[in-house]
Amino acid sequence: MTDRDTTNASSNNEAAGDIHAVDGPNLLRPGNVTLPLAPYLFVSVTGDPDWKIDRMRLHKYLASVASSQDPVAEKRDDWVGFAQKENLMAGDYPLTYPDEWFRGGKWWITASWKSNWEVHLHIGFVNTPGSPHSHIELAVQSGKWLSKLSSKARSWWKTPVVQGGAKIANYETGILLTPRQTFSKTFKSKETASTAVGVALSCLFFLGRHYHESRNLSYAFGIFIASSILIAAATIFVSALFRHFIALPRLKWSIAQLQD
Amino acid sequence: MANYKNPIEFENSLIEIADSVLKNRGETQSHQKIGEGANLWELDYVFIPKKAEGMSSHTYVFEFKYSSSPTLADSILFTQLARFSALEKANSRNALRFVLVTNGKVSNFTLPITVTVLDEIRDSTDWRKKITDWLGKEVPAWTQW
Questions:
Q1: pLDDT confidence of residue A159
Q2: Going residue by residue through chain A (260 aa), what tens digit of pLDDT does each one get?
Q3: What is the DSSP string of B25-69?
Q4: What does the CA dihedral A26, B32, B105, A135 come to, rounded to 10 degrees?
Q5: Residue A228 CB neighbours (<10 A)
Q6: Where is average pLDDT lowest: A102-106, B28-32, B54-58?
Q7: Is the pLDDT of residue B47 over 80?
Q8: What is the ipTM of this complex?
Q9: How is chain A split among helix, strand and coil, in percent rounded to 5?
Q10: A53-57, A166-170, B15-19, B65-69: the lowest-pLDDT one
Q11: Given phi > 0 = left and psi -120 to 50 = alpha, else beta, which region is B120?
Q12: Which residues of B114-126 are buried (b: 16+ CB within 10 A; e: fewer)?
């Protein structure tokens, strides 16, 4: 729709507090929303509808993830207070209303039963400081046991013989991780090109100064062009390599929910 | 759940059909961007019905949520509800209504009266039927068209 331009134009007016002057009835104002600031993972574990998860086994597993020492299942009523304290509120709602939850020294874990064959887990750090790195930390640290989750999940089913594997239907973090850009993209980027131009230019000057000393003009000129090109090419490649593997962060991340 | 393979396919299909059902019944817009900078919001779909006589006019904000698990995660549901309630407060003149559309199942929580859930949207036929029914219920004057 052509309204897109109108929308952009009028959002500026909106910032100036002039809300209804330009916009049509179409434009809304953004609100101020509280979203969970602490990082969390969402994992959904499902089987087939005729399967049944063994709640006791799952319970034990969750307890063991929460803490290696005897963890105690927390009271359901205490969850909301915990969620408020730990920055896990979405507006007036806690992240989830779990059927059971655990708090260990490092992790908290909740489980909500959606059916006999589907359980939703939310997982996060206890006492997360406001550091943005804790999102990455969560992804990295949970990787240690999360990767084994689907094979572990096989033992949670009551059905005597589970054919095939249990499924981790969904795996979501509160953040969005995107792999870094491809090497060819770094290679073609402006910064890489300008570095190379800089090096090619200084090499031109260097050769230019020694130009008179050579008697064979065309020979010198050939060397001069060839080496400029070579050095430029090598520089483009090396600087792209450097930027790609060292200077650029390995993963870009952002808070998925906020971007939504 | 089986028929939509990813959120993009889901959303595109929903928008296409929502347009075909709603476009001549009022103003529609997909991917409406509001706000700016750090507080940039994108509304999946906005529908403002033509004013019918004796009808109060609402602005309907649709949010399309693809779920890869059979049931939509609570955290997704509550995040959306929180976003909507903030939007509602910021636009009290528009009498906003929120429609959450998902291919998953939405758990049985008590929802605010301004919120409608259309869940378990399996395919485009399903969606066309559900949004047509919704329109008939929401704006009854049009069922006579």
A1: 56
A2: 333 333 343 334 333 333 333 344 458 898 888 887 788 888 888 777 777 888 888 888 888 888 766 666 888 899 999 999 988 899 999 999 999 999 888 889 999 999 988 888 888 888 766 555 577 777 777 777 776 776 677 777 775 454 444 455 445 544 433 445 565 665 566 555 555 555 545 445 554 555 555 455 566 666 666 666 666 666 666 666 665 555 544 444 433 332 22
A3: GEEEEEEEEES-GGG-EEEEEEEEEPPPTT----EEEEEEE--SS
A4: -140
A5: 17
A6: B54-58
A7: yes
A8: 0.87
A9: 45, 20, 35
A10: A166-170
A11: left
A12: ebbbbbbbeeeee
How do A251-254 and A176-179 pair as beta strands?
antiparallel
Contact B70 A118 (CB under 8 A): yes
3-state secondary structure of A52: coil
Looking at this protein, which amino acid is placed at residue B118?
L
Nearest CB among A29, A34, A89 relative to B34 is that of A29
In terms of DSSP H, where are the helices of chain A? Answer: 3-15, 55-66, 79-85, 133-146, 149-153, 183-188, 190-210, 217-242, 256-259
Find chain A residues with C-beta within 8 A of B78's C-beta: 90-91, 93-96
CA distances from A82 to A33, A60, A250 (A): 20, 22, 33
Chain B neighbors of A120, CB-CB under 8 A: 69, 71, 73-74
Which residue do the tokens 């952002």 mark? A254
Contact A29 B109 (CB under 8 A): no
The backbone torsions φ and ψ at residue A198, rounded to the nearest 5 degrees and listed phi first, read -60, -45
Nearest to B41 among A15, A30, A112 (CB): A30
Burial class (CB in 10 A: 0-12, 13-18, 19+), A250: exposed
Q: How far is the C-alpha of A210 from the C-alpha of A71, rounded, in Å?
A: 77
Collapse the DSSP code of A238 into the 3-class scheme (helix H, G, I; strand E, B; otherwise coil) and give the result.
helix
Q: Is residue B74 a contact partner of residue A97, using CB atoms and an 8 Å limit?
A: yes
Q: Residue type at B109?
A: F
